[in-house]
Design a protein that fits this description.
This protein has a single domain, classed as Vaccinia Virus protein VP39 (Rossmann fold, 3-Layer(aba) Sandwich), CATH 3.40.50.150. 35% of the residues lie in helices and 23% in strands. The chain contains 9 helices and 9 strands. A 7-stranded mixed sheet has the order 4-3-2-5-6-9-8, with helices on both faces. Strands 1-7 form a two-stranded antiparallel ribbon. It binds zinc ion.
Length: 231
């Protein structure tokens, strides 16, 4: 569906969080999906030419480095089994999948932080306001049933001037237009939201953030990297 007012594209009939946690956990469905995709020639061409994504784009690593270069409490929303640790930061995570959270927990504990097993909105509610200096929302916001509520809640939990680093598939990308239905950003039923730079900027603005695009050139990469600055 595409909203006629704000142009936001989203899955009209999405599963609720409990179904996403149990039957459609990301770690289960994405292996199956990759298997299905390998059968298509255009998908193999797409995969074989991934080097093109480096042109005119900031590398994924340097983007994440910004978050862990911000001293203080750093939150990873939808952290999966990973934990980013760096000097001067205390890592926190929110993860809806119990299995993945269990794998990540020792790493958070060892670095002085913790991981909360919950959907993002409920997970955020467990932290004090103005607690975080930065948040990482990497390949997460496209899965979120309530992106608006989560951003509003996240704004309260971030300090003034805090940042949220967002990586989402770019629905406005050249790749989506070329690949059509076989574009890597389509994941059914896991991906609920299909952001463009404009719709993500609109969502950010409505919730008290300013969006700064991190891709040097727009739309060339299948993913949109953005820094949301808390106003
Ligand atoms: Zn709308």
């Amino acid at each position: 569906m595409r909203c006629t007012r704000c142009e936001m594209v989203y899955l009209a009939r999405s599963l609720d969080n409990s179904a996403l946690t149990a039957d459609h956990a990301w770690e289960k469905t994405h292996a199956k999906e990759n298997e299905r995709r390998r059968k298509h020639l255009i998908y193999r061409i797409d995969q074989a030419t991934r080097f093109r994504l480096r042109f005119g784009n900031q590398a994924d690593k340097s983007w994440v480095r910004q978050a862990i270069a911000t001293p203080g409490n750093v939150l990873d929303v939808g952290c999966g089994s990973s934990c980013r640790v760096a000097p001067g930061i205390v890592p926190f995570g929110i993860e809806v999948s119990e299995g993945l959270a269990k794998m990540a927990e020792p790493k958070y504990r060892a670095a002085g932080g913790r991981i909360v097993v919950a959907p993002a909105e409920q997970g955020l509610a467990q932290f004090e306001d103005n607690f975080f200096s930065a948040a990482v929302l990497r390949s997460y916001l496209e899965h979120e049933l309530k992106p608006r509520e989560v951003l509003a809640q996240l704004r309260r939990k971030l300090k003034a001037g805090g940042i949220a680093l967002v990586k989402v598939p770019d629905f406005g990308s050249v790749g989506r237009h070329v690949m059509g239905a076989k574009w890597c950003g389509f994941r059914y039923p896991d991906h609920l939201n299909y952001f463009t730079e404009a719709t993500l900027a609109g969502l950010a603005k409505a919730n008290g953030f300013r969006l700064e695009r991190q891709n040097l050139l727009p739309r060339l990469n299948d993913n949109l990297y953005a820094k949301l600055v808390r106003l």
